[in-house]
Structure of Cytochrome P450:
Amino acid sequence: MCVNAGKDKESAQPPGCPVSRPVPAKPAQRPERVSLLSYLLRFRRDILSAQPARLYRAWMAEFRTPFFTSFLCNDPDLVNLVLTERPGDFPKSGRLFEALQPLLGHSIFITNGKEWERQRRIIDPAFESGRIREVFPAMWDAAVAAVGRLEPLADGRPIDIEPQTSHVALDVIFRALFSIPVEDRTASAVFDAFRAHQASRPMINTGSLLPLPRWVPRWRARKTKATARIIRGLIRQLVDERQADLDAGRAPDDLATRIMTTADPQDGSTFSPEEMADQVGIFLLAGHETSAAALAWALYLMALFPDWQARVAQEAEAVIDPGRIYFSTASKLKLARAVFRETMRLYPPVPMYLREAARAERFRARDVPRGAQIIVSPWHLHRHERIWRDPDGFDPTRWDTPEGRESSRRAYIPFSAGARVCPGSAFAMTEGQLILAMILRHYRVALAPGHTPVPVAQLTVRGRDGIRLTLTPRKTETP
Ligand code: HEM
């Protein structure tokens, strides 16, 4: 009998059977026809499962409700138009600003126009790919610390891996920004406050940002505002301390120092402490939520595909010298990088990007009114049936094929594209592949019995009930 179970069965197949591969978790789609009320409520709960399956084949979809009109763009030319060719005509929506302002103030993630341009001019130099070498030791130290934290958990009992990946991702950001580990008193207070903030909300999701009527369920605004105030207070404390260190000439050379001492090349101004606190808020949030989600899904995929896990672990064993930090390690972790890229194709941490049409447009022979919501959905684009071969399958070798490279050129945008592309993309790729390799060098991961994670869109794509795995040490002696 040929089997196609939820585990890799290659070696168990009788000869002559086609090799069966598991299919990575994908949310069930809603029925094609549902009532408006049912659609809105599903939309609020989780925007991924609220969509019909045809969006994986369509080039564009229009949603008209009494409250908003939105266009989901899957046509690579349209995506290019919105993100790269004319980003000024498709600014971030005012709803995004309204929803995130209590936590993020005037941070670069939600501003538009001249204010955003100035912020980008000051921030970009700190993240240039040539500067990744300088933050690499911070990533390395955080990865080593994560391996240590996982040790007492690696006894074969199921654990939710997401809190662990959140912990290490936030650790990386604190070390890179402020030269402090997440265990530092203020840093760990921020970590706790972020958790309380998410629990009070429970996290903004893309659906909650569309202009829906007031009776559709919302987060508890008062509690959320209170936790946002706590986080902002703590961040402001870190920024003020750093300013004092800069004034006294004793500040370490890290990302915070670089950004706070960079002047806008156009008008010579630097960030005020208040402005810097806004940016730190988004570095902490965008930098850790996204990397944590990608890393958790990567470990899930490694558990689902033990053959790939073995290859990444072997590469890590060969390349990583635990006693020495070599930046060249990053470029040698090729399999880990291919796996991390494929993970972000299947589970793009930011599943949809929301824009607003600043003026009337015409998309694929349809009128797009001014003010319409424009949705670019990496979630659908990355699994588009007319663009990708085996769109729902896990295949890290696709990046080396001409066909895969062409699909990727047209439809792979986990970090967005154009003027508002993620400034942290090189940082995140280096961090992701390194931590994945470090963890797999030390631990074997397996699926927790009876658990299949369900991807849902919160602020990032997460497992609805977590992502449950078991860990066991790869070898008994610790290097
Ligand atoms: C796997 C990790 C990451 C992913 C997938 C990711 C993805 C993204 C995406 C898709 C956007 C644009 C969203 C939109 O246009 O609506 C974005 C923006 C941004 N990201 Fe990342 N990001 C990651 C890590 C980081 C890191 C590590 C940092 C910094 C430490 C960072 C900082 C930012 C900032 C500041 C923006 C706003 C840029 C702007 O609007 O001009 N991200 N990120």
The mean pLDDT is 88.
